[in-house]
């Protein structure tokens, strides 16, 4: 595999209720990676419509995700922030990848099975093909690193498989067109830290999710201080004191989750948190967790509100990002067309 220039790409769906899991699993990583890499962060609106969306809410959600990126510290002047549908090459490359990926690969995707549920016949074709679009998002920029939460691991593996199959199927043409041994890098998932899978506050065995019907299951980035405090106080726990060692969290999913959230928000390990709170009861720990969550999240929520109050400013940021993304996308797509054998 030749060396590819390091580049980070990631995406978040504009499907409402951005929450602490999105923030700790993805957005904080986006901010960190800016220091070391060229980064492209995308509001993946084409992904959102794989399930029904209300157009008005979709438009508001697109702006809200862009605002969350910026409020959390993503710098759209140094890096690229845009919404996917403004760069037509995403859909174009996804079509090529639909023809590279195999039905069998996509049939194994657990997220499709979960989202389609029992009524698979009635799921959209887009929901089934979604991982090919995700592979296109990443590979359109020949990105090498992809910060995501744990739930995206399987999709990232599929993106690597697509890249590898394209490189193999078209090896001769890739070389003949002057691209050497491989056209696409095999993108690496960056799934690191203590909060790669933040769990529901109501049930420590379920992922914190935008679509959970109980709002108490998650802390939304738009929640105010009182709401955050209430949700943390109501969070499910067990009757025992907190353990002093990480091993003691083993069969205690709710305790493990809250300790993980504290650790991630405070930039510590779980062991550090247990050093401070081990042996104590949950109410003391929860008070500290309320203070920490409010201190970290309320300023972001406030800044998001300020930004979304001026949609024309956000739209300008997205249009500027899209123009810069398009320049890279156009070059990749032109090369892909030559490699595949299209006439242009
Ligand atoms: P989505 O909201 O599905 O577009 O997810 C956006 C990003 O947040 C992806 O990188 C997900 O892996 C990540 N993410 C979503 N839910 C969680 C969670 N409960 N814990 C950690 N990361 C998450
Ligand atoms: N599928 C991701 C999710 O649901 C969102 C996404 C779309 C993405 N395209 C991507 C993430 C490309 C990383 C890279 O969370």
Q: Work out the radius of gyration.
A: 21 Å
Look at the structure and give the mean pLDDT: 97
- Poorly predicted residue ranges: none
The SSE order reads EHEHHEHHHHEHHEHHHHH
Q: What is the helix tally? A: 14
Layout of helices and strands, plus pairs?
Elements: E1 8-12, H1 20-33, E2 39-43, H2 45-48, H3 55-72, E3 80-83, H4 89-98, H5 103-107, H6 110-116, H7 125-139, E4 145-147, H8 153-169, H9 171-176, E5 188-190, H10 225-234, H11 253-266, H12 270-277, H13 282-308, H14 311-340
Parallel strand pairs: 1-2, 2-3, 4-5
Helix pairs in contact: 3-13, 4-7, 4-14, 7-8, 10-13, 11-12, 11-13
The structure holds adenosine monophosphate and tryptophan (TRP).
Tryptophan binds next to β1 and α7.
Describe this structure in words.
By secondary structure, the protein is mostly helical. The chain has 2 domains: 8-196 and 310-340, Rossmann fold; 215-306, Orthogonal Bundle (Tyrosyl-Transfer RNA Synthetase), CATH 1.10.240. It has helices at 20-33, 45-48, 55-72, 89-98, 103-107, 110-116, 125-139, 153-169, 171-176, 225-234, 253-266, 270-277, 282-308, 311-340, and strands at residues 8-12, 39-43, 80-83, 145-147, 188-190. Strands 1-2-3 form a 3-stranded parallel β-sheet. A two-stranded parallel sheet has the order 4-5. It starts with 7 loop residues before the first strand and ends with a helix. Residues 12-13, 21-22, 25-26, 148-149, 151-152, 196-198, 207-208, 210 line the site of adenosine monophosphate.
């Amino acid at each position: 595999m030749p060396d590819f220039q390091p580049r980070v790409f990631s995406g978040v769906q504009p499907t409402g209720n951005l929450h602490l899991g999105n923030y700790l699993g993805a957005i904080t990583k986006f901010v960190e990676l800016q220091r070391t890499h060229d980064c492209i962060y995308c509001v993946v609106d084409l992904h959102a419509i794989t399930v029904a969306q209300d157009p008005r809410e979709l438009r508001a959600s697109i702006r809200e995700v862009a605002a969350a990126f910026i409020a959390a510290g993503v710098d759209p002047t140094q890096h690229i922030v845009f919404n996917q549908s403004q760069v037509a090459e995403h859909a174009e490359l996804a079509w090529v990848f639909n023809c590279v990926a195999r039905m069998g690969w996509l049939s194994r995707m657990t997220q499709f099975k979960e989202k389609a549920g029992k009524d698979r016949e009635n799921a959209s074709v887009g929901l089934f093909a979604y991982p090919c679009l995700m592979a296109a998002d990443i590979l359109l920029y020949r990105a090498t690193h992809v910060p995501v939460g744990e739930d995206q691991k399987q999709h990232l593996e599929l993106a690597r498989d697509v890249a590898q199959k394209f490189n193999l199927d078209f090896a001769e043409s890739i070389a003949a067109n002057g691209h050497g041994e491989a056209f696409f890098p095999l993108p690496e998932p960056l799934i690191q830290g203590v909060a790669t899978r933040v769990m529901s506050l109501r049930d420590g065995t379920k992922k914190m999710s935008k679509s959970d019907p109980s709002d108490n299951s998650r802390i939304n980035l738009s929640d105010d201080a009182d709401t955050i405090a209430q949700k943390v106080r109501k969070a499910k726990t067990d009757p025992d004191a907190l353990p002093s060692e990480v091993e003691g969290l083993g069969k205690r999913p709710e305790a493990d989750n809250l300790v993980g959230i504290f650790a991630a928000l405070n930039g510590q390990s779980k062991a550090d948190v247990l050093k401070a709170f081990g042996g104590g009861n949950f109410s003391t720990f929860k008070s500290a967790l309320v203070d920490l969550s409010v201190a970290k999240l309320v300023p972001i929520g406030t800044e998001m509100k300020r930004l979304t109050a001026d949609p024309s400013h956000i739209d300008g940021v997205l249009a500027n990002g899209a123009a810069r993304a398009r320049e890279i996308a156009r070059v990749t797509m032109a090369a892909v067309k030559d490699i595949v054998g299209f006439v242009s």
